[in-house]
Amino acid sequence: MNEQQSSQLLPDVFAALENMPQMTILHVGPVQPETMAFLSGLPCRLYNNDLFAELPLAVDEEDEQITRRQLRELLFFPHEVRFDLCLFWDLFNYLDAEAVSALMDTLRPHLAPGAFAHCFGVHNTRSPQQDYKYSMVSSAELLLRPRPAALPGYAPHSQGRLNTLLDGFEVQRSVLLAQSRLELLLRARTATP
């Protein structure tokens, strides 16, 4: 059964980006019709890559670079692309530490200064797995659709561990949701000279 969920963090992101002539958004899940309808009303360029469809990411004990190569191939963008907003949804709950690190390394050159990111995590790493497809109905309202089957690789990180793994981003705000879930607003760290 579909669930409506309000977002306390996304309205601030879209308010901060509203004066941009065109924003560039990375969406890492399957794009749902509501999301397309919402984003079509904004001046934006959408890059979509359903990394959930690639789970579990390749792991090879003898070749630590295999996950990095796989992500570079999956997330190949023109050199000049810079994302103002990355919508990760709950992807990090399904990536191990190496994969999160590899994802950050792959995306870092494509982040606009001060880029935002949004994701969901867990408050308690023993929280039960909840597999959803996320839709944006508006900047303040999400629609969560249950996936037909459980996604592989569920191994959520604590908020502290996730904050460490998201090198290139820092958690600006977090909101505790029902069922021990967290909504996180991230901001790209400013590079130091």
Structural description of this entry:
With 193 residues, the chain is an alpha/beta fold. The protein has one domain (3-188): 3-Layer(aba) Sandwich (Rossmann fold), CATH 3.40.50.150. Helices cover 22% and strands 32% of the residues. Strands 3-2-4-5-9-8 form a 6-stranded mixed beta sheet, sandwiched between helices. Strands 1-7-6 form a 3-stranded antiparallel beta sheet, with helices on one face.
Strand order of the largest sheet: 3-2-4-5-9-8
CATH fold naming: Rossmann fold
Helix content: 10-25%
SSE-based structural type:
alpha/beta
How many structural domains in the coordinates? 1
Estimated share of beta-strand residues? 25-35%
CATH superfamily: Vaccinia Virus protein VP39
Index terms:
single chain; 193 residues; alpha/beta; Rossmann fold; six-stranded mixed beta sheet; three-stranded antiparallel beta sheet; 9 strands; 32% strand
Walk me through the topology.
Layout: E1 3-6, H1 10-17, E2 23-27, H2 33-39, E3 44-48, H3 66-74, E4 83-89, H4 97-107, E5 111-122, E6 132-138, E7 141-146, H5 159-165, E8 169-176, E9 181-188
Parallel strand pairs: 2-3, 2-4, 4-5
Antiparallel strand pairs: 1-7, 5-9, 6-7, 8-9
Helix pairs in contact: 3-4
In a nutshell, what does this entry contain?
This protein is an alpha/beta fold. The chain has helices at 10-17, 33-39, 66-74, 97-107, 159-165, and strands spanning 3-6, 23-27, 44-48, 83-89, 111-122, 132-138, 141-146, 169-176, 181-188.
